[in-house]
Amino acid sequence: MNAVRVLLVDDQPLLRTGFRLILEAETDIAVVGEAGDGAAAVESTRSLLPDVVLMDIRMPGVDGIEATRRIIRDGAASHDPKVLILTTFDLDEYVIEAVRAGASGFLLKDSPPEDLVTAIRIVAAGDAIVAPSVTRRLLDKFATRLPAVRDAAPPPGLDTLTEREREVLTHVARGQSNAEIARELVVSETTVKTHVGNVLAKLGLRDRVQAVVYAYETGLSRPGQGG
Known about the structure:
5 strands; 10 helices; 12% strand; globular
């Protein structure tokens, strides 16, 4: 199996060095390059063809959000890079825009090394990072800044979901994994996976991260709801 190719993007050289040391200790991950700003990240992605771009948000010049937008826009069938956003709680308001720009997930900068490694593997495999401990706190805090559509007519697509699909989407919005949802609904994990796939297809969403944002934007999930 080929190693996951990772591009490190952060304007702080010491942080890039720390990430490199963590990742290079893994036999299935290869750091193929580094970039100190968004513009360099876009160019390096084009030339180095990484599988995953570990992207800081706030950088001089082109920031991580715009760089993510350009990288995803440039992506082709032969090279579909995934962007994993690095954030800190004082910059959380930028995360929603990063997801809208096409990021496959986000991770706190002070996450344990094993979480960073796991996140890269998950994103490289085509899944998205929707960690309950991060997602719920982020969206609960900033949901009031999302478009106020809760009192309007249901957005296009939501009425196409079955009652069970809405229920599954609500659990996804809480950051629960397929296994956790399966246990709570007393169904098989395969059944949950099928429901999630149907939800994404019907709503035209790319992955679970977009599904979380969608659930908050439509009012299906609200700040402070459990999970």
